[in-house]
Input
Amino acid sequence: MMVFAGCILGGTGLSGGRGKVSGILAAVLELSVISNVMNLIGVEPSLSQMVFAMVLFLAILLASLQERASAVRA
Output
């Protein structure tokens, strides 16, 4: 799930591969830092998975809104 979230957060479009590797690496690094911080402060694994699910949901929602907005402009 973290890899999928990293790709979406990194800028890869849902309808096609328009992202950059540097963006994906930055997003995966961000998600890894969030995961490590949650582990260090003692967040339970089930809550950690829920946080990543929410991040993934928001990333997909924002990516679809961005694609929709660019389709309207074109």
